[in-house]
Amino acid sequence: MDDKRVAVGWDTRTWSRFHHIWLRDHCRCSECFHPTTKQRLVNTFEIPPDLQPLHVESKVDGLQVTWPSTTPHVSFYPWSWLRRNSYDPPIQNTETEKILWGSKIEQSPPTVKFEEVMTEEGPGLFKWLQNIDKFGFCFVSDVPVTPEATEKLAERVGFIRETQYGKFWEFTSDLSKGDTAYTTLALGAHTDNTYFTDPCGLQLFHLLSHTDGTGGATLLVDGFYVASLVKELHPEMYDLLSRVPIPAHAAGEHESLYRPSPPSGYPVLGHDLVTGELTQVRWNNDDRSVMRKLEAGLVEDWYNAIRTWHSCLTSPDSEYWIQLTPGTAVIINNHRVLHGRSAFNGKRRMCGAYIGMDEFQSKLAVLSEKFVHNIDLRVPEEKTHQPTRSVWSPYL
Amino acid sequence: MDDKRVAVGWDTRTWSRFHHIWLRDHCRCSECFHPTTKQRLVNTFEIPPDLQPLHVESKVDGLQVTWPSTTPHVSFYPWSWLRRNSYDPPIQNTETEKILWGSKIEQSPPTVKFEEVMTEEGPGLFKWLQNIDKFGFCFVSDVPVTPEATEKLAERVGFIRETQYGKFWEFTSDLSKGDTAYTTLALGAHTDNTYFTDPCGLQLFHLLSHTDGTGGATLLVDGFYVASLVKELHPEMYDLLSRVPIPAHAAGEHESLYRPSPPSGYPVLGHDLVTGELTQVRWNNDDRSVMRKLEAGLVEDWYNAIRTWHSCLTSPDSEYWIQLTPGTAVIINNHRVLHGRSAFNGKRRMCGAYIGMDEFQSKLAVLSEKFVHNIDLRVPEEKTHQPTRSVWSPYL
Description:
Two copies of one chain form a homodimer. By secondary structure, chain A is of the alpha+beta class. Chain A is 23% helix and 21% strand. Chain A folds into two domains: 89 residues, NE0471 N-terminal domain-like (2-Layer Sandwich); 264 residues, Double-stranded beta-helix, CATH 3.60.130.10. The two termini of chain A are 26 Å apart.
């Protein structure tokens, strides 16, 4: 301990330091943190900047710190919680492993059965969501060939996200919605909703019938895989794709005119501000608006970068083509996996839904709390007494 | 014209230059840009990087460029469109003026009447949305004191955004939802949904009744005004508030656990990547998660920065307090204006709704197309022939 920080030794060589003000602000006692709502109650702004503990004591389960005040305040921090939240230095936590894939995924694409997913309280739903998390997509087989069953499937993840196109949708190729998706044309690999501030997180779709015609194969491309190729081969292009924001619009209908906020838009590749990890791909060249804010000196480089991106995206090594048939639905992480289709003739009836990324992540977290036993959600003494989520949950 | 660019002179001293590849990519003829869906049809990636025009000709209304190909392709760009989209150099366009305010706004807060807003095809709705755009909030007076009328009012902007709390909501102080909002406690100025990737854009609320008690005044604070104070007085703190992402959670209910994506979160102050303009305030200290990714060297500075932010936010000069009464609803831009309330006793019945920022901006754009005549949406010759949105719209 010095006048600013408490040091905690994990072994003879590894230490973490925690600032006094940080510790006081993160007290999780029921006076400082509401045990039900999990909201902060302590007034952060009244903590004296030069606060010093009265005592610091190592207990079996964690660190106990006594703070000066009219009645001394006692805070307790489990060792596992401190270690997981070490910021000085940051200690690498194992995040979910993402599996990047190219065309060879066709040999064993992630698939679950409808029945598994629909079983109440079963781990089937968790398996489905874990597949989406790892691969960015997952098939669901043996789905009853009806919009009703497909809608129920979507709602296993969370509520369906409403857009200008409605909630659960069904469509045929009639250009009813002012977007080329509603035609019979081929569509290159793209993500949906580049014209939204927060593009829909998951997209589920299910081919209900295709009569009097052929074509319409489904294309899936792992945007994270393609990004890794571009990063390896052309780091300066990767940098431009990560920096230059692209404006976009959905303006095919009279009564709406969608653009992201702010309207300058977002880069093709989005990253976590702290870790630098790639977190989002946004790509639909058809919906791109006027590049009115492109830096003049970058025009040629930027066109070269998107040409290279397009070329990696459309390479046979990246493209996974599959002819879907009624009964097999596919769900896609629209922040990672791009989709498209080949042209078709005849009449196709499709249905599907969007689900928000936040709803997906929420459900995945709730199921992880339930099924992952090493997730260390609860400190030992709480296990039997506390039915609610622990204040030490790694998600808080 | 040189081998890369066409130069356009606006007057003897002002010029814009447009790269050939940019011009070809932005051709708006019906072969290159779908006139109904407003989506790009030209294959950007097949444009030769060294493309040169065959001819460039100044017409009365705009620039005509002929491109080499088996059958030469002719593109036309109206002068007004070129000028508006000049990127080399960028020409400043007049954006909507925001009016920043402090406590003195109480002398004439923006207000519209329910009847105005509800009149079909009338400009009342546009006036309401313009007020929200300029001030970040607007009162609506003479609202029938029912949830039904309030819901209809909300739907004038767009569809109501669904969240884990439902769609249109009504509540009393019963902690039914695992959040302190559902108590009788005072709530400091905050924005809602810091735990979402895209916090709701607008929040409408309406006090339907308050019986057997007093208190519960409404607090509004212009986050953009407070940010301007901090920027002026403490630029280094403004910088930290703009750079350090804050994780957040909504974890008071068993069946959901919301966090933004990526979970590192977002800074208090969000800016347009290109213009540097302040575009979003996110602030709820109660919902802040563990600051596990804070840079060790910034801990003290960051706590100082949020203390200063809090102090400016809670200064009497910033706070606008108003005692709402049944019949007056208020709508807030939740990306700009913070809200709170004083403690109360007795029973309060409130109702309201969230609306997405994208839905608000879409409606505002559609009404601007309709009511703003100098918006230059159409080139002259199109005015009579074309009922649909122009391909030269400034929104595309």
